[in-house]
C-alpha cells in the first residue's frame, strides 16, 4: 500500500502534467507549493500538505495572491477567497483519498470574478450582439421558470422556452446569461430538442437535439434524456446552479431533473405524436 508521501507526489506529478508551468514546488518534499488556479491564472494559491494527507488531514490554504495585472483588482477580497478556497478543499476531502485535483476543478466552477462580468458587459463581440438582436431585450422574455430548490447552500432553478430553431435557442440562452444573477451561477446547463420541416421536402422533418453540461459532468445529457422521455419537441430547458461551497453528491442531479421537469410542464409542453 502506498504511503501518504507517495500518493502526494504522484498526485502532484499528475497535476503538473495536466497543468504544465502552473505549479512551483517550494521545498524538496513538496509539502508546500504555489500554483496558479487553472483558467484563472491571475490568482495564485500557496498550499500546505500535512504529513498525514491524504490518510487523515486535508491540505491547507496558506495564502491567496491576486496578480497586480488582474483587471479590477479592487474587486477581490483576499480573506474571503482564502476562506472560500479552504471550504472547497474541505468539501472535496475524504480521508484516504487525494483531493487536490478535484479541488482545482471545483475552483473553476465557483470562481465567477468581477472582471469577467465587466468584460461580458462590453460590446466587444459584434457577432454576439447581432445574435442577441434576434430576441427581446429582457433576458427572461419567453422563459418560464420553475420554483427554486435550495439544498446545503446550493440553489437550483430551471427555465424552459419554446424555440423553433437552434439559432433562436442559442440566442435566447445568450440573452438569459446576461442577467446579473444568472452570471453568478457556477453552472448554466442546457438541453434542447427541435424538429422543423425540411426545406427541400415539406413532408419530411429535420430534428436537432443536444445538450451542454457547462462543467457539471453528465448534467446536460441527463436533462436531454428527461425531455426525450417526456417526448417534447421545440423546447430548450436551462438549469442554473448557484454553488454554496458544499458538495451534495448525486442529489444535485435529482434537483436538476426536478426543476427542469417543472419548468417544461409549466411552459405548456405536452407529449407529441
From TrEMBL:
InterPro entries: Impact (IPR023582), Impact_N (IPR001498), Impact_N_sf (IPR036956), Ribosomal_Su5_D2-typ_SF (IPR020568), RWD_dom (IPR006575), UBQ-conjugating_enzyme/RWD (IPR016135), UPF0029_Impact_CS (IPR020569). Residues 10-114 form the RWD domain. Keywords: Cytoplasm, Repressor, Stress response, Translation regulation. GO terms for molecular function: actin monomer binding; protein kinase inhibitor activity; ribosome binding. Pfam families: Impact_N, RWD. GO terms for biological process: cellular response to amino acid starvation; GCN2-mediated signaling; negative regulation of protein-containing complex assembly; regulation of translational initiation. Belongs to the IMPACT family. SUPFAM superfamilies: Ribosomal protein S5 domain 2-like, UBC-like. Gene3D superfamilies: Impact, N-terminal domain, Ubiquitin Conjugating Enzyme. CDD domains: RWD_ScYIH1-like. GO terms for cellular component: cytoplasm. Its main location: cytoplasm. SMART domains: RWD (SM00591). PROSITE patterns: RWD, UPF0029. This is RWD domain-containing protein. It is found in: Cytoplasm.
